[in-house]
Amino acid sequence: MANPLYQFTPSHWTRTSIECKSEEEAKPLIHTAKIIHASAKQTFEASGQSFHLGAFNLYLMAKRTSKWILDKTGEETFSDLHVKIFLCNPRSKAILCEWIHLANKDAFVISQFSLGSGGQSKVLSGVSIHGAPLAVLKNENGQGYSLQEIKMLKSLRNSSHVIHLFDGNSEYLIEQYAPHCLFNLTKNPSKYSQFDTPERRYSITKGIIQGLADIHAQGIIHSDMKLENILLTEEGTALIADFGLSVWAEPGMVHAGSLGYYSPEQIESVKSYVATKSLHKLSTQVDIWQTMTALTRYHLPRLSPAYQDRFKEYQYEVEKIYDGAMTEAEKHASCAFPSDEEKVKMRKWTELYSERLASYFNDKKSERSGLFSDLPRSSPLEKILNEMGQFDPVNRPEAADILKMLDRATPEHFTASYSHP
Predict the structure, then answer these.
(1) What pLDDT, in 10s, does the model give residues 129-147?
(2) Catalytic positions, please?
């Protein structure tokens, strides 16, 4: 069978540009038609509120092209699709499929319809030759995705709780489609009522820790375990995503992360880097602190008033340090390509907040051993968060140990709101 690998240009949509002289040549075109059909079907069955004429034109183009290919090759034509209203990316104009790529004997279509954006990437909708929906991350920072990130994701393909990478290069990452994220669920739980049950909260929490254990077993420090990077499938399976800041545990030189999630030792490394351009060697325990922060935000309504007040106080102090440093440094919103003047302000801001946040942690260390260590633990969840929130990374449990602690808990410990024991 001919190799179904095509780089599409607008001319490929004209009838004269697609020809098949034999049955073997026709097979990849049939595959292509099926991909186009599946992509159009996925796109127009997606939820949307606004009508865009370009979306309808793209639908017709895909439908007519696939019908023509199948007519020409003697295959049965596809039945009509029911067109639903969809908000089209205005830049897509008259091109539905950007390219089709072959990897591991599978082919993918990337549409021009945006599912969203995050960090330095735009997320496009895609579909495999088998009709499975995909999320396609397109790099937009001009630097491209690193080979290290791709290698890490490939090493984690056997994990059920890490986003699955089908293929990737410096420009694109073709990943498993997961339409929800824990940040949105935490912000508006009533909108995601199908996930807001004790059983689902328990399985999501356990899935996050299992994914983290799988990552650490491969010798990887994720270093950006925030709510936005924990995705959920339609079935509610938790998936850890975004390895753009990840490093190998050896040599373990970490300083990048997300504001509000930095561990005490990580902020010391940032402080050292600003002052001397040298980083501290860190461990996978960075991820344990960050995951504690994410899980505390997620489970905050289920914690005792003492835990809630302590965490809110901590968040307030951290945000005050960041905002105060930003004002003092006259730093504005981050941009992909900062000017030299903005880089100077960014350096000043980083210097101020790292020094002050490190001082904050040192003050707290003199008072207690961890964020919650002086508070009574009224549930297994609070005990787990207390262990994860130790200031000294040596005293934090490994992800595998946290899984054992979760095994001793039950979904009843993950009710919608705190109740006295």
Answers:
(1) 555 677 888 887 777 888 8
(2) 224
Please tell me whether residue 281 adopts helix, strand or coil conformation: strand
Asked if residues 327 and 226 have their Cβ atoms less than 8 Å apart, the reply is no
Which ranges constitute the DSSP H helices of 192-277? Answer: 198-217, 264-276
Please list the residues that pair with 110 across neighbouring strands: 126
CB 290 within 8 A of CB 224: yes
pLDDT tens per residue across span 46-98: 534 333 334 444 445 555 555 554 554 444 433 322 222 122 233 333 333 33
What gap in Å lies between CA 39 and CA 96, rounded to an integer?
Answer: 9
Residue 246, phi then psi, degrees to nearest 5: -75, 150
Q: Report the alpha-carbon angle 38-120-54, nearest 5.
A: 40
Helix, strand, coil proportions of the chain in percent (round to 5)? Answer: 50, 15, 35
Q: Is residue 400 within a helix (H) or strand (E), and if so which, with residue range?
A: helix 399-407
Secondary structure of residue 335 in the 3-state scheme: coil
- pLDDT interval class at 164 (50, 70, 90): very high
What does the longest C-alpha to C-alpha distance in the chain come to? 80
Residue 382, class by beta-carbon neighbours within 10 Å (0-12 exposed, 13-18 middle, 19+ buried)? Answer: buried
Q: What is the pLDDT of residue 23?
A: 52
- Distance in angstroms (rounded) separating the CA atoms of residues 48 and 1: 39
One-character DSSP codes across 152-200: HHHHTTT-TTBPPEEEE-SSEEEEE---EEHHHHHH-GGGGGGG-SHHH
Question: Are the C-beta atoms of residues 303 and 381 closer than 8 Å to each other?
Answer: yes
Residue type at 31 in one-letter notation? H
At 412 the three-state DSSP class reads: helix
Task: Pick the closest to residue 136 from 127, 146, 149, 145 (CA basis).
Answer: 127
Starting at the earlier edge strand, list the strands of the sheet with 97-103: 97-103, 106-118, 121-128, 133-139, 172-176, 165-168
Selected residue with higher pLDDT from 414 and 76: 414
Q: Which residues, at least 6 apart from 128, have a Cβ–Cβ distance to it below 8 Å?
A: 35, 38, 106, 107, 108, 134, 166
Contact between 116 and 124 (Cβ < 8 Å): no
pTM recorded for the entire structure: 0.76
pLDDT at 233 over 90: yes
